[in-house]
Amino acid sequence: MRAAARRIARLLGERVGGQVGYTVRGDSAASRSTRVEMVTPGVLLRRLQRDPELPAVAGVLLDEFHERDLDTDLALSFLLDARAALREDLFVALTSATLEASRTAGLLEDATGTAPALIDIPGAIHPLDVRWAPPPRGAEPLGAVGGRVGVRREFLAHVARTVESAYAGSEGDLLVFLPGVAEIERVRSLISAPGADVLPLHGRLSAAQQDAALSPGSQRRIVLSTSIAESSLTVPGVRVVVDASLAREPRLDAARGISQLATVPASRA
């Protein structure tokens, strides 16, 4: 959220907290002049629970709706109820590059009795050459690290070698997906790619640092990114994607009754 808000604000020539702001759990940059506020599904859901009428909101856009989680589904249900009973003028939009639009529209029509408008924005489809680069024996992705399950160093070394091979055998920039900041920094320290800028991309970076990763320069780039480049930001100039196939997702610790982030194999969905 922070990264996307910073990027949009910079495109408008403004600072975050002006016309463009964000609110996440424990952090907010918004003001009375904010017209576009980016929030997590959890924040939206809590606001709907406090005041389902959303009196200061003209419209809600649920982006990347195909990712589907409990908070997003509940928020959509609350929004539809608010439109039906409290706010006929409330604009609600779902956006996705991969959602089955017709099927989803049919489900919404069944739920509301009104057919939603479908807007199709065509985009270029590029050919893909998918190559499988399994780790060697002894370099499995997950194992015991510091007394808990984590990403093994041997696997990160394998990712670095795969990146080097892809860099040597291709043209253009490379985008590498890793589950977190620690893995990004580790792989960054291992990569040897003469003539390339090896750049991190994640939500903790400043706007200037993110712009460095997003803006093509005089040299080829190897951008090491979390999932932020899947849903929030677009990296131009990329010709090769190396995916470590790991994701960091919330998981319930039943013994302690709390949610915590866990590193798990990424879904192919």
UniProtKB/TrEMBL annotation:
PROSITE patterns (alphabetical): HELICASE_CTER
Residue span, Helicase C-terminal domain: 162-269
Signal peptide: none
Sorted UniProt keywords: ATP-binding, Helicase, Hydrolase, Nucleotide-binding
CDD domains for the chain: SF2_C_RHA
Entry's Gene Ontology molecular function annotations: helicase activity; hydrolase activity
Protein name as catalogued: Helicase C-terminal domain protein
Protein's organism: Schaalia georgiae F0490
Lineage: Bacteria, Bacillati, Actinomycetota, Actinomycetes, Actinomycetales
